[in-house]
Amino acid sequence: MRDTTIAFLALCLLAGGAPRAALGGETPPKAAVTPAAETPDKRSEAGFNEDAAEKYDKAKKSLKDFKMSAEVYREKMASGNYQEKKPSAKDPGSASRKEEARRDVDQGWELIALKGDLPGGLQLFRDAEKLDPWGIHVVMSLSIALDLNGDAKGALAKLTEAIKQDPKNRINYLSDRVALYTKLGRYDEALADSEECLAANKTTPSYWRNHARLLAKMKRFAEASSTYQQGADLDKKSKPFSGDRDFCLELKSHDVTSEACREILARTERKPG
């Protein structure tokens, strides 16, 4: 599935723009694909020019980011560290609306992670929001998708309102808000949220990772390294998060490193060619 999807994206981009399927339109007819187009060192043989190769790389990276985001969402929900709001006894239809919203959320992630259709997935999350505006699956999915779509402020607003509407899941929302505040350069607010998350639960690896990235942004590199290592020690089986390689390279550039970062850099070393 991965190779087929990437090859399809590449062909659409060569045709002169984003694939119609990724914009919610009709799927274009299938065309023959040369295997050579899937490997960077064979691009010239497959007729790639520099412009098309750059578009191909961006599409490939976007799909990888989409899949990583879907994994992060599913791992959060699989952990069970949240409380689902119960349907209202005063509203007999609320249970069925919640179920329909969950179906929209699941279908939205399928579109994003399997087809690279972010706009289509985002629309399904919007539909789910109308049915169950403060259900945790809806809030988490919508905030992640808004951020992927370049609307970090919109994602932040959704999480901030969710904290008021669903206080039982406050820590879950705060942990995601840390990353958004960090991205937006609002480090003091990110630090307050991050410290509250760690005070509430010191055994969740992602809280330590978020805290480490924040410390690095604040130029506190030694603390960032030791904090990152604490998170890695809690979950030896976890895959590197998106951006972990860049984070470790930044620490290394400041002559700070850790066992976890050395392992990540060794595993993700980019070979020439």
Keywords for this entry:
273 residues, Serine Threonine Protein Phosphatase 5, Tetratricopeptide repeat, 66% helix, disordered N terminus
Q: Could you characterize the architecture of this molecule?
A:
- The chain has 273 residues and is mainly alpha-helical.
- The chain has 2 domains: 2-201, Alpha Horseshoe (Serine Threonine Protein Phosphatase 5, Tetratricopeptide repeat), CATH 1.25.40; 202-273, no CATH class.
- The chain has 12 helices and no strands.
- The protein has helices spanning 2-14, 50-79, 94-115, 118-131, 136-148, 152-165, 170-183, 187-200, 205-217, 221-234, 244-253, 259-267.
- Helix 11 (244-253) crosses helix 12 (259-267).
- It is globular and about 60 Å long.
Bin the strand percentage: under 5%
Q: Mind telling me the CATH class of the largest domain?
A: Mainly Alpha
The CATH homologous superfamily of the largest domain is called: Tetratricopeptide repeat domain
Q: Can you count the helices?
A: 12
Shape summary: globular
Low-confidence stretches are 1-48
> Could you say how many structural domains there are in total?
2
Give the strand tally. Answer: 0
Radius of gyration: 20 Å
Mean pLDDT: 77
CATH architecture of the largest domain: Alpha Horseshoe
> What is the H-and-E element order?
HHHHHHHHHHHH
Q: Main beta sheet: strand number and arrangement? A: none
Instruction: Give the termini separation.
Output: 25 Å
The percent of residues in helical segments reads: 55-70%
- The name CATH uses for the topology of the largest domain is Serine Threonine Protein Phosphatase 5, Tetratricopeptide repeat
Derived structural class: mainly alpha
